[in-house]
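S2.1 Query sequence (Glyoxylase-like metal-dependent hydrolase (Beta-lactamase superfamily II))
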Amino acid sequence: MTAPSKVHLLKTGTMECDQTWLLLKPGATITDRSNTRKEAVWTTCPTHAVLIEHPDGRILWDTGVPQDWETRWAPTGLQEFFPVQEGTTYLQDSLAALELTPDDIDVLVLSHLHFDHAANAKLFDNGKTRIIVNANEHEGALGIDGPFKGAHLKADYEGIDYELVSGDAEIAPGVSVIETPGHTWGTMSLRVDLPETGTKIFTSDAVYLGESWGPPAVGAAIVWDSVRWLESVEKLRRIAEETNAEVIFGHDPEQAAKLPFAPDGYFG
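Output structure tokens follow.
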């Protein structure tokens, strides 16, 4: 049986934002009567992609923020709420550090179609790379009125010939997606079973932060359906407990500082 041999974490841009977008927690983003004038917490919001080396080909999970973020996001106003740090490392930089380009990727899997995950999807629309997205996400994101809604920008993802998946699905032996809606219609998380170091679960925006994970799970400002979101978190928790998985959250700056990012490290 074939199995993934190595997993690289790729830096794909670090944004900044009000922490309330990511966490609605008493004492952190929700104040009490002793702190009615407490200033908002401005935090970093790193993004990442996951590159899986597999006998069946190279699989990439997510694409991060675009290099032209300020002009691309200008019609939406998102550039004011999520500015990208100067000197950030983009997806193209991280691939180049591994001597790779988008043409070297056999399969691209998009956790969902938000502006900080699918922004570079068209780099892989080359007639060679399979591009996979959840069917519910595809229907919702392509069905919005106008050029954008919230964090969905049609310019990022429309016109691509996608391969649609539903539910939990195997992408390749040892690599599967977990359907975890709530953040959006069809948000997915990624499970990779490595022969040496065990199971890794990459939550994407199903869980932003370690503080979100709990238990109990702590919500956030950007959630489409709070009940489905909570069900998805608990689904991930069950899988993580059953497999003794290491869980990598979508935008956790404290966790990111301790992870083995490429080209200096990897999961093997």
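Residues 226-243 form the longest helix (18 residues). Residues 31 and 221 are 15 Å apart (CA to CA).
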